[in-house]
């Protein structure tokens, strides 16, 4: 199970300067992360390579179709800025699930609205923001799931999984277009891959380090107990000092 592998597999690595990739791959939670990003990677480059051609095939004006790439770039900037604020509030686990669910929904819905300029631009900005946030999400996500000493190697393994699908995804989408004569099947396949990745994330523990310390993860926005204690003591101190002066 993902909850029980910390004591058995992570404990022997504590205090070491590094952990081998082979040992890391024995951890179920890392395999889940690698599997999620591997499935996601097949849809990663698809909008950059095929979205403009898809829009042109659907009869969209060529000038507008070329602006879709700019929409992806603008969305990427927004995604990176919004990511840090969302992680602070909800944590990287929930942010990862949200962006995967959003990307899967956009990919699966695109074939139904591919001829609509408003939806195409919304898709471009939305996908850009998702991809932009995912680039910066890997390390924070690994940091809450893995022992600190394993973060560099685990992040490298995840990026390696991404590279394979990023290189293989667009050619596979092109082959599907050649066979079917439409990009609908390519984006439906991409959305299905991302949806499968979204499903895998629900097998990840919410907060591994909190579980190792015997603590239960705090809900988003909850004030830590030590801070609540200081807030409760503060007014009493002022009240006591006021009585002393009297």
Layout: helices, strands, pairs:
Blueprint: H1 5-10, H2 21-24, H3 28-44, H4 46-57, H5 62-90, H6 92-113, H7 117-145, H8 151-180, H9 184-201, H10 208-212, H11 225-245
Helix pairs in contact: 3-8, 3-9, 4-5, 5-6, 5-7, 6-7, 6-9, 7-8, 8-9
Jot down its keywords.
single chain; globular; 0% strand; 78% helix; mainly alpha; 246 residues
Please characterize this protein's 3D structure.
This protein is mainly alpha-helical. It contains eleven helices and no strands. Helix 6 packs antiparallel against helix 7. Residues 6-15 and 208-224 have low confidence and may be disordered.
Global structural class:
mainly alpha
Strand content: under 5%
DSSP, total strands: 0
Distance between the termini: 62 Å
What is Rg? 23 Å
What is the succession of H and E elements? Answer: HHHHHHHHHHH
Biggest sheet details? none
Low-pLDDT stretches are 6-15, 208-224
Mean pLDDT: 77
Number of helices: 11
Overall spatial form: globular
Q: What share of residues is helical?
A: over 70%
Brief characterization of the structure:
The chain has 246 residues and is mostly helical. It has eleven helices and no strands. Mean pLDDT is 77; it is low at 6-15 and 208-224.
């Amino acid at each position: 199970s993902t909850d029980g592998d910390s004591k058995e597999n992570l404990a022997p690595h504590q205090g070491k300067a590094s952990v081998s990739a082979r040992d890391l791959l024995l951890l179920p939670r890392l395999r889940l992360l690698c599997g999620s990003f591997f499935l996601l990677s097949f849809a990663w480059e698809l909008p950059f390579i095929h979205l403009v051609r898809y829009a042109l095939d659907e009869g969209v004006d060529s000038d507008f179709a070329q602006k879709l790439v700019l929409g992806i770039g603008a969305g990427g900037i927004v995604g990176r800025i919004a990511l840090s604020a969302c992680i602070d509030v909800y944590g990287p686990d929930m942010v990862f699930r949200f962006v995967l669910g959003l990307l899967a929904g956009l990919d699966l819905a695109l074939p139904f609205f591919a001829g609509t300029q408003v939806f195409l631009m919304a898709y471009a900005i939305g996908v850009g923001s998702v991809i932009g946030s995912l680039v910066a999400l890997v390390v924070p996500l690994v940091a809450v799931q893995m022992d600190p000493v394993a973060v560099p190697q685990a992040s490298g393994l995840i990026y390696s999984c991404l590279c394979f699908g990023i290189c293989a995804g667009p050619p596979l989408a092109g082959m599907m277009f050649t066979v079917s004569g439409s990009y609908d099947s390519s984006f439906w396949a991409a959305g299905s891959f991302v949806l499968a990745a979204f499903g895998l994330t629900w097998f990840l523990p919410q907060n591994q380090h909190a579980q190792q310390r015997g603590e239960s993860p705090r809900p988003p926005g909850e004030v830590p107990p030590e801070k609540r204690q200081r807030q409760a003591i503060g007014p009493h101190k002022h009240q006591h000092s006021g009585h002393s002066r009297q």
